[in-house]
Amino acid sequence: MNRSITKIFVLALALISSQMLYAQSVMIGETSYETITAAITAASDGAVIEIRGLHTESVNVGKNLTLRGEDPTTDIIQAAAIQAEAQTAVIAAVRPGDFDGDLTITIENLGIRNGNSSDNGGGINADKITGLITLKNLIIEQNASSRNGGGVSVVGSKALITGCVITNNKSSLDGGGLILASNNGVTIDTDVDIAGSLIDGNEGRNGGGIYINGNKDFGDNNKIDVSIENSTISNNASLSPAAGNGGGGIWSRCALWKGDNTTGNVTLRMVHATMYNNTHESTLKNGIQFNSTPASALTNFSIYNSIVVSQDDVAEKALNFANTNTTEAINNILGGLNGLPDFMADSTENANRNNSNGRTATFAGIATTLSDEGGDVNVFAITEEATAFNYCTVATGITLPTTDARGETRDMMPDAGAFELLLTPAVVMEIEDQILQSGFTPVVIDLSTVFEDKNGDALTFSAEVADDGIVSISFDAANMTIMEVGNGTTTVTITADDGTGRTVGDSFTVLISENAVPAIDAPLEDLEFEEGFASTTIDLTGRFTDGDGDPITLSVEVSDETIVTAALSGDVLTITEVGAGVATVTVRADDGNGGVATERFDVEVKMALGQEPRVELSIYPNPASSWLKVKGLKSINTEDIQILDVGGKRYSPRLISNEGQISLDISQLEAGYYLLVIDQIGQDQLVKRFLKADQ
User: Fold this and answer.
1) pLDDT in tens, 104-125
2) What angle do CA 38, 39, 42 make, to 5 degrees?
């Protein structure tokens, strides 16, 4: 075959393949249109235009309607096959001068790419949309503007941007990803809500990710209010020189509102936002930068439950508070800072607000690369070891989102940033098999010592009994009661549910018979030794008895044989030293007829002076309603242990100390989250969070 014919054949196959992959259609109801523009022209008010496949055209929208795709990775509108060939924005959503009423437009589930505009907004230009423009689940990429807003421009409009990826867009002027501005050409304030979105890898002169413009002389009759919630702003760059305005992530330029000539006309509020690795040549202007025109025009700024960091260099300022009226900051992990407001410069006030200043991405515990964790946008994930995990313990006084950037439910103790780590409840101590004699007193087991929810969610419990002719199960909060029905053996499965659809189960066997279970007549006490004790013996004679006179067989297990080993010779138990630490020894007495009694005790081998191991502190149950138990401390003075509520108020609880465990009376506390703070001479302060539940 001729080479040229072969090439034509291959190109034809490629074209057919591309058309199959991006099968084109534009529909309003059952009616098909050749182009999106033709469908818009024919559309009646409120119409929904369904778009499938790849479409190369520039679109003007001046009606109340919806442009809807199904999948933004395959249903795409592009201004040109390659961005360099484009001469217009992909979509211009502009209110016509003769339009009567408020314009409402929705654009969803589409890819928007390869726009190149000489005006604002290379991808989407929304101008004077006084009703609402909704941008939902869009991938806005590879667009450019020779002015502002390489990806998106929202001016003089009400806008909701949700579940969108705005990436790899460029502006010759400001706002590589977006420009958001007020406009005197309308009589409304500009309101922009950005939720569950990713703004990543965009470039502009100033405001690499977002440029917020109070628009002095052109927009200062009105205000602009920007809310950024559950969103990630990362890897954006401001390309101006060091003397430029900067703002690798966000640049806000505020004007005086002409309504009173004293108030700044820009408000920026961030809730559960993550900002990472945004850059500018000046170390002071990498992340969020504010400017004022005139100097008294201060951006009204507040930030909650957020992470704003550079990489791992706090000299790179992630947030410069200069030129702001910062009204509140609570539960934030913040990198290098400049121009702190007074309440954040005060260490006590700042601690009461649970802000951690001058921190790094490593401290926060966020991943340094974006990953797909489900949902519409990629995120910087965290693990349960991260500082950001369960970080937000102080009440904010605002309505917080109930989901994260992916749409996953946030738990009772939310994480800082856009991503919420949701863990399945865990079994921390398996329920022992129950060997019971007929006529036994109902057995109560505290399930808060069995199950743990590290997200702090309240657990509810249910039981499945294989043979309900043997036992029945009831619950009173976390207390499970086993009640006799008849003799025999059955399996019981307990399920713990955290209320978000995540569950874990634990199964155990219940044996009820006429046989008397061996009794523990002399409990075994915990033991403590200094290193070098070598070994010790315990005589078990008479410690276990059997009511039926059955012969008893003893056996022994050790939880950690790197600490001690245990061996039986008749009724004599020998404990032999191996290393330092704490191990649990379990002795079982078996009567050979199904009756088993179990006794446990701890053996601690103390290290030599100067080698004291770091204290591993555990608290349970958590949540707790009346008593909070602390394990890992030998003893403590009342003045060395305190409880702090979310407002910083301190409580000194009544405590009961029993070797190896301390019990704190929390029955008088109001329900809510608290910090347990323990001071130890010569050691680090220990801090644990817990939830006080209703009694």
Assistant:
1) 999 999 999 999 999 999 999 9
2) 90
Report pLDDT digits (tens) over 421-446. 999 999 989 999 998 989 999 999 99
| Alpha helix ranges (H) inside 232-389 | 342-345, 347-352, 361-364
> At residue 15, what are phi and psi to the nearest 5 degrees?
-65, -45
Query: What contacts 620, CB < 8 A, 6 or more positions away?
Result: 448, 449, 452, 628, 629, 631
Which tokens belong to 108?
């969803």
For residues 84-119, one letter each, b for 16 or more C-beta atoms within 10 angstroms of the residue's C-beta and e for the rest, the string is eebebbbbbbbbeeeeeeebbbbbbbbbbbbbbbeb
Residue 421 to residues 305, 495, 618, 622, Cα–Cα distance (Å):
14, 21, 21, 18
Q: Which residues of 244-270 are buried (b: 16+ CB within 10 A; e: fewer)?
A: bbbbbbbbbbbbbbeeeeebbbbbbbb
> Could you give phi then psi for residue 278, rounded to 5 degrees?
-90, 145
CB 130 within 8 A of CB 158: yes
Query: What's at 565, amino acid-wise?
Result: T
At residue 614, does pLDDT exceed 70?
no
pTM score of the predicted model: 0.75
| 120/173 Cα distance (integer angstroms) | 9
Strand pairing report for 152-155 and 178-181: parallel
Is residue 636 predicted with pLDDT exceeding 90? Answer: no
Q: Pick the closest to residue 517 from 456, 440, 460 (CA basis).
A: 440
